[in-house]
C-alpha cells in the first residue's frame, strides 16, 4: 500500500491512498492523522469505493509529528568519510514538525549560513504506539517507509558538541512523497538510496549496509521514549555529503536536489535564496 | 504574577493564578493553553472575581509544549567540573513534553540505568511566538520563570556524542510548581539556585553567573527555530552534579530531591524504584 498527504483545491490537505495507480482521498487531514486511527489499514482499503482525485499535489507526508528522531553515523562509508569509528549505539538527535517540508517544495537558504549540505535518508513512519519494544514489536510498529533529506546547516551543527541547531532550521527537511508499507519494501534486504545535485549523483548507497537497521533504531529509541503513530525516524545518510568533499561543496541558490529511494520514488527540491525571493537583493 | 497548573477534584487539570496568596482558577487546561491566548495577562487578572480554590495540587506547569530546549555547559563551575572550556555558543539539546513531570511527583527509576543524576535548572516559559529575535524581542517573549531538574541518565547520555537518549526518559524532569512573571524576578541580576538530596545541599549557584543568560538563549534559539507560547527553555545547571563527584554519586530508591530557586519556590520529588513500586521485586 502507498499513502500520501495531498493538497487539492476542494478539500485542502488530506490523506490519500494509491489504488491501482490512482489516488483516492481519505477523510483524514494527513497521513499522521490517518495512522492515529487504529483501523487505518481498513480505512485506507475502504477508499476504493471513492472517486479518485483528478489532480494530486504531494505535500509533507506527516504534518504534525510530536517526535522526529534522526540517526547519524549509520552508514560505514559516511562514518569513514567523517573520520569516525563504527558506533556501538545509534547516535540520535531531533528535528521538529516545523523542520519538515514538502517533497517538491523549495528549500530556502539565506544569510544565516553558506554551508547548507545534503543527507539523503530512508525515513520510517510509526503506525502504532511503541514503548520498550523488542525487534518484533518494533517491526510491527512501523507503518511504512518514505524519503527524507536531512538538510544540515554545517556551521551551526558544529558550533559545539550538540548538533541540534544545524539540524532544525525550519522547512528544510523534505519528507515524502509517499509512504510505502513494509509488505512492499524491505530496507533490511536492501534498497538503493541516492542523492543528486543538478543531475549529478553525489550520494549512492544501499540500506542493507546500515549499521543499525530501521527496526533496530525504532526498538532502541523505544527503550527511552515512547513513539506514537505519525512519529518519524530518520535512519542516517550514506557517504558523499558535501562537507566531506575536497574542497567542501554546499548547496546554493538555483541548485536542484533530488533524493531517490528504490521502491518509493524521489523528492525534488529547488534551493532558493530567501532574500532573493523576497526581492531584497 | 504567579501562575500554576493545578488539579482539583471538580475540574481536573487547569491553569490558576495567585491573587493575594490564594489560587484562583482560570478557564484553561494548563498554563501552556493560557499563554497561547494573546490576552492571557488580562484573562489572569480577571480571575480576581472568582472564588479561590480550597485545595491546590500542583502538577506539571506546562503539559504539552511542542518544544522543550535545554542548554548545557552554562555555569562556569559546572563546565570546569566536567573538564570543558567556556563555550562560544549555547550547547542545546531537546526534551519532549512526555519527559516532563509534576513538581511533587515521584520520579521512577528502574533497571535501565543506575546512573540517574540531578541538574537543578532555571526554566523559561515562552509567552508569545518568537522568531529571529534580538534581545529586546526575546525578553518580551518570556512569560516567566520556573524550576526544572534536568534529570540525566548519564550512561545513556554518554554512549556517544549526542546526549539526547539520556535526557528524554519519560516523566523524569519536574517542572513547576509556579511560573513567576519577569516583573517579580530578575535572573540576570541573579537569583540563588540549589539542589538538595535528602536535605544535603549538592548544588548551589546563582543565575547571575550563567555564561548565556535566559534572554540570550531564547534569542539564540529563535535564530534557527520559532518558539511559541508554552514552549519551555532550560538554562543549564550549576556545579555539583553527582557524576562529577569522587566517587560519583547517583540517585537511588528512597532519595528525596529538592530543587529550589529564590523567588519561585521548590520542587520536591521522591525517587522510587519502578520495579519495587510495581511489586516485581
Question: What structural class do you assign from the helix and strand content of chain A?
Answer: alpha+beta
Q: How many whole angstroms does the radius of gyration of chain A measure?
A: 18 Å
Largest sheet of chain A: 11 strands, mixed
State the share of residues found in helices of chain A, binned by percent.
10-25%
Summarize the structure in words:
Helix content of chain A is 15%, strand content 33%. Chain A has 281 residues and is an alpha+beta fold. The mean pLDDT of chain A is 95. Chains A and B meet through strand 6 and helix 6 of A and strand 6 and helix 6 of B.
Descriptors:
homodimer; 281 residues; alpha+beta; 11-stranded mixed beta sheet; 5-stranded mixed beta sheet; 15% helix; 33% strand; globular
Tell me the layout of helices and strands:
2 copies of one chain form a homodimer.
Chain A: E1 2-8, E2 12-19, E3 22-25, H1 31-35, H2 40-45, E4 57-58, E5 68-72, H3 76-81, E6 91-95, E7 100-101, E8 107-109, E9 116-117, E10 120-126, H4 135-140, E11 142-149, E12 152-153, H5 154-157, H6 164-167, E13 173-180, E14 192-197, E15 200-206, H7 214-221, E16 232-234, E17 256-261, E18 265-273, H8 274-277
Parallel strand pairs in A: 5-16, 7-13, 8-18
Antiparallel strand pairs in A: 1-2, 1-4, 1-13, 2-3, 5-6, 9-12, 10-11, 10-16, 11-13, 14-15, 14-17, 17-18
